[in-house]
User: Fold this.
Amino acid sequence: MIPTYNEAKNINKLIPMILKIFKKGAIQGKVLIVDDASPDGTGKLAEDFAKISGSVQVLQRPRKMGLGSAYKDGFKVVILEEEDGAIEMDADLSHDPGDIPSFIEKLREGYDLVIGSRYIPGGRIPKWPIYRRIISSLTNRTTSRILRLKQNDVTSGYRAYSLKALKTIDFTAVNSDGYAFQVEMVMRCQRAGLKICEIPIAFKDREEGKSKLSRKEMWRFMKSMIRLMMI
Assistant:
């Protein structure tokens, strides 16, 4: 499940990479693109892939509606179609599709939430300057501590949910967006007593397109953390 906004250059590479992983591992999976009416034609490009491959599905949304909203709409599709689970990942090639089989393996072992972590042994962030690593690591550690979460990388956008998890937690009631959405989902899974684990991943910066991270997003994250502390 991949939310997109102006990611045409990236999904043109990413979708074939995922389909290759499916074929190599004999994985009966689908690539669900949730596009927010991208002006650069991302949605149209995804539709072209869908015409060629039955393993590509596109959910077109009328306007830019936010990351959290995109995930919730995607989860509804997963539940409606009774899939075994959903792996969510970014469209910007920062997440390696080669890790997909590892997520599936953990779901098959009975885990309900599998988080791709940069901050456990084996996890790494190649080419990031030290100050970015420190800020990101401190943000995750502080967030986990104040919300009493047991995981190391609660903001990671590369993760997998079992169908049981999506049916158990009320994700439609999640009010957070962006990185905070990921944190609140972890919190809800933990409070529901679901089985959670982390697997190491390598995270790399995007090469094409523009980052969605901004000061506004950081401020919104801080406000969401304060709200979650009160829940």
User: Anything to note?
Assistant: The chain has a mean pLDDT of 91. The two ends are 28 Å apart (CA to CA).
